[in-house]
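We now fix the convention by which a protein and its fold are recorded. The integers have meaning only within a learned vocabulary of local backbone shapes. A complete example follows; check for yourself that the lines match position by position.
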Amino acid sequence: MNVIQRIRYVLNAEASAIQSINVSSVYETAVDMLRACEGKVLTTGMGKAGIIASKFAVTLCSTGTPAVYLHPGEAAHGDLGVISEGDCIVVFSNSGKTREVIEMLQLAKQLGLGKVIGITSHSDSELRAYSDVILEMGDIQEPCPLGLTPSSSIAVMNAIADAITLALMELKGVTKRQYGLRHHGGYLGRVARDDNE
């Protein structure tokens, strides 16, 4: 195996998967849903998709949209109680068939959960039945030599999350000062404060 060629292949595969996302009007609908959400934004996903969902939540928080990551496994043991009436949820699941995620969504509606935005690639995804809006990831081909390790799919999820976050931030008109207030420690906070002085 040529390591350099393999690395280039993986990077090109991930970049191609991102560029292949079909950005339709449904993305605008999803962003409008999050902007209009009367409660907080919840994010969820299992495994590596859950890590992207967790990162999405903290990026939303830092850009002016309060959000909380809800672990589907822990939801079954009491964490489902974080849901309040009017909350919205963004669900990351490539297959859309993950048992813990589907079970959580089935029960969450009983607690007053509002809009559900699903991010998935499988056309037979169960997640589709529980979502108000589906953001299509496209036909994902993983560059793993076994065709199993999620890398292109995770890159697509992360790119979609970032795009939603920054579009929402701009719609809300978040200023550098407001950004700085959420980053009082570290480099980003210093840059934002220096620009406002």
Q: What stands out?
A: Strands lie at 41-45, 67-69, 88-92, 116-120, 133-136.
